[in-house]
Design brief:
Oligomer: single chain
Number of strands: 8
Order of helices and strands: EEEHEEHEEHE
Number of helices: 3
Distance between the termini: 19 Å
Structural class: alpha/beta
Shape: globular
Helix content: 10-25%
Number of domains: 1
Largest sheet: 6 strands, mixed
Radius of gyration: 14 Å
Length: 135
Amino acid sequence: MINSKYEIGKLEVDQSNLKSKTEHKILASGIEDKILFYVKPAPTHIRLVKEFKLNPLRILGGGNIYVNSENKLVIDDLSLLYGPIPNKAAASIVKVIQEDIKRRGIETNGTLTDTKDAILSEAWENLGFKEGLVL
C-alpha cells in the first residue's frame, strides 16, 4: 500500500492562525486502498478524531501542518498518541493540500516535511513503509 492513493478526507483551515506551528493538526487514516488525510485547527489529535467522527482503529499517524516564516507549507512532528506520518506520504499529501488551499486564496512558496518517521508504527510497516525504526 506504499503506492496507495493519497487524498484529502476533510480540510478545514483557519487562515488567521495557519502560521502557528501547533494550531492545525493533521491525521492519516487508512481506508481500503486509500490513505485519507484530515486537517483542522485543534488542540489535540484526539479532538480531530472526535470532531471528524473518525474510527480510531484506522488512524495511522499524525502531525502538525502550518505555513512557516519562509511561507512554505510544512507538515512536521508527530502525534504523541498515533505516531508520525512517514515523510514519503507527507511529501505527497502536502502538495495536494497546497493546491487545495491555493484555490482558497492561500498562497505558499513550496513545501517541507519533517515528520519524525524514524519511529514509525507497525501499521505503516504493514503498508510497506520501512523508513525508520518500527515500534
